[in-house]
């Protein structure tokens, strides 16, 4: 017979075995307790306990009783103590929280383990909080495992995860999200912004807000601007000011003030808005240039602002994004010269003219003759039950009189 000692000090049998009688398992031990097999190296009365629980920890006595003898006055049992070890388990996990900027937040992470030497670590977005420079002076991990951030800032929003372990089994973890709210604020104020004359343009108000932005007020030359009563001006969802058709009267000094449910942190600095005319091409390249391999091609392009007061920036680029071969390419103003033409120079080129308010593009094609044929494109396949039909568009043949032949394999 084996029994344990309950909290009141009473002996509670957990397993009773009498030869030729059915065995008895105590409450809570059904299906988990049995004698060892006869060929076990342990004694025949040894006990096998499975599916160990925390409540199984304690003292156990193996006691032999003879039914045909008077009970002994002295104890004849052997005592054993069972220590139950188990990995850490989170009993009180952290929960999602919303705080105002400047307040204190505390996340719980209460864990239980056997033995109880639990180590708790906290991570923000996967990075250990002690290694997050922005949190270093504001974060505390308490002895009970909870995390305190005091005071919270707008950039502290994110996922926080606690990880617990006592060295047994895999670490356990639980996560919660911190949402930090703050009044809407302007994050950046450009001193000068430009609008394109007679085109659509935008004056940006760079805003950060949580909860989301509700509305923005604007001033022009220190007077409140009422865009809903002003033709050609609309406040966009992000708070910026859209001018559907810019004129000279839109030039001036502007400020913006954003608001959300928490209010505002103030207005932007003054932004000088200047109206500029977009560039126009005065010289455009030919629509097509045809040259032979090894020859040189010069393509012309020039632009100016509409009133001719300033020169826009002019650059050449390949339409497919591949780089120009600088060792064979020379630029002179808006003109470009490519020497020693090769098969790879074949393609479309763009002349790009830009100023502060607009970018304009014109394109030309360069055909390099006397080369191998170019690969076909727009290749498609149409399959039926018994056949496949292939179709494509031919690439450049390599010369005006060259005939292309195709091999399919």
From TrEMBL:
Database matches in PROSITE patterns: IG_LIKE
GO molecular function, one term: cell-cell adhesion mediator activity
Stored Pfam families: Ig_2, Ig_3
Keyword list, A-Z: Immunoglobulin domain
A GO biological-process term: axon guidance
InterPro entries: Ig-like_dom, Ig-like_dom_sf, Ig-like_fold, Ig_sub, Ig_sub2
Ranges where the Ig-like domain occurs: 87-175, 183-274, 279-362
A Gene Ontology term for the protein's cellular component: axon
PANTHER family reported for this sequence: BASIGIN RELATED (PTHR10075), PROTEIN TURTLE (PTHR10075:SF92)
Protein name according to UniProt: Ig-like domain-containing protein
